[in-house]
Each structure stands twice: as structure tokens, then as C-alpha cells.
Amino acid sequence: AQSCHIQPADTWVKTLAEFLDGVLKVDGQIEAIASTLQDFGQVKDRLKLRLHSAAYRQTQGAGDMMIRNEADGLVSVMVCDMEFANISVPRTLMSGWGVSEEEAYALALHNTHQKEPVEYVVMPRLPNGVVMEGMESGSNYTATHLLCLEHHVKNPSSSGVIAGVPNRHMIFLHRLQDQKFMEAMGDLWRMTEHAYRDGPGSISKDLYWWRKGHGLRRIPVRQQGNERLEIGADPEFFREVSSPLQQGN
Q1: pLDDT tens track for 223-244
Q2: What pLDDT does 154 receive?
């Protein structure tokens, strides 16, 4: 539905046909795929991670898959990329590979970073002086690069960055380094919310705080009325970012 949403109506028949052809292709090769997945030597270079909303845990069969919580509202799903399809890795299958979960996830993230390159963009300065950065590509794995920001955000401040991950093809970023950060968070949320609605592969409307070595923390944002935004309180964010950056303001 999201693929059709971003394309003209006269292409929908082709879009649906390609989707159904893919489903049938996987169905016809599922036995051969299952045999391949059992051999870690054959799949180790194909392992990757897909970032999803935490709601993915509610999908049928998700309880048997290799799924890890990455932050409040976000999970990563380990998949085997067979080129024509991504096969979610069952937990029972992974247990026969002879490697730990930590090693398997680290390898999958490494493969995603190395084999699914993204374009890093510094956007034109907004009228209010705020600068946004981001990553984009046509890959379904673009959003996963949120889990390895240390490879993309060069020379981050000690305050880190605020990120939005609206869908599988985009990540928005703002560096926390001056008094404009509150204004920037509003702009970032609006960009994220718009891209979340458009998709495809919508993930989250919330914002995430990242600092090198500290991982991701969710900063919930809600719209109150037409213009006003309510940013969820986080004592650590206030202490480490809000209070220092607003001194003298």
C-alpha cells in the first residue's frame, strides 16, 4: 500500500504484479532456502539487520525470529539476504550455527554497514539558521545505519545528535551544539512525521538521542494543537544537553 502511495495510479498494476511475483518466487524456493540457511558458512556473508518499529513483534511468527530491542520503540530483525527476498532468521536455526547471538548480531550489522552504503547529506541551512543532516538510499536497510552512527557522524559534540528514523529509506540528524537545539527538535520532528506518513516502510515518528558510546534513547514528541509540540521529559537529556546548551539564554 505504501509503495502504491508514492507512485502514480497507472503503475499500481505493475507494482502489485512485481510484489506477487516475488512472493511466489520465494514460495517456490523455500525448501532450497531452508537447506542453505542451516549452513553458517553459506549464510554468514548474507546476514543483515532490518530496523523496524517495535510493533513488528506483534506480526505472525515474530516470536520465533531473531529480534532484538535496540531502543524504546525500535527493534532489529536478523535476516538472510537472498537477493530476491529477505528471510527472517528463526531462533532455532541460529542456535545450530555454533556462534553466539552477540557474534551473529555484530556480523549482521557489519555486513549491513559494509554492503548497503548510504548517501550522507548536509542539508541547506533553514531560515531559522538550523542545520540538518541525514542519510538516504533506495536500500531497505538504510534505517539500520542508525545503529552504527559512529561510522557516519564525524566529530560529534559531547552532547551527541538528535535523530529521526521515519522510514526504511531515511535518517534525519541534528547535531546538539548550540542554543537552537529546541527549535531544531521541532523542525526535525515535523520532517520525521511527514516522512513517516509517506513511507514506504514507516518506522517511527519519535526522536532519538545518540551519543558516542551511549547508544540510543527515545525522546517522545507529541503535537499539541496546530503548532505547539510537547517534548517528553528525560532527566539525563535535561542534565547533559538542555541545561548546558541553554546557559545564558
Answers
A1: 777 677 788 778 888 888 888 8
A2: 92
The dihedral built from the CA positions of residue 173, 237, 50 and 103, taken in this order, carries a sign that is positive
More confident residue, 34 or 220: 220
* Torsion 147-152-155-156 (CA) sign: negative
Instruction: Calculate what percentage of the chain has a pLDDT beyond 70.
Output: 94
Asked if 74 and 165 touch (Cβ cutoff 8 Å), the reply is yes
Query: Measuring CA to CA, how many Å separate 102 from each of 1, 106, 141, 174, 211?
Result: 35, 6, 20, 30, 21
Q: Residue written as cell 545450530?
A: 96
- Condensed to tens digits (0 to 9), the pLDDT of residues 141-153 reads 999 999 999 999 9
Candidates 23, 108, 11; CA nearest to 68 is 108
CA distances from 74 to 58, 156, 189 (A): 13, 23, 17
Tell me the residue type at 38.
Q
Q: Give me the torsion for CA of 207, 187, 117, 5, rounded to 10°.
A: 90
CB distance 27 to 56 below 8 Å: no
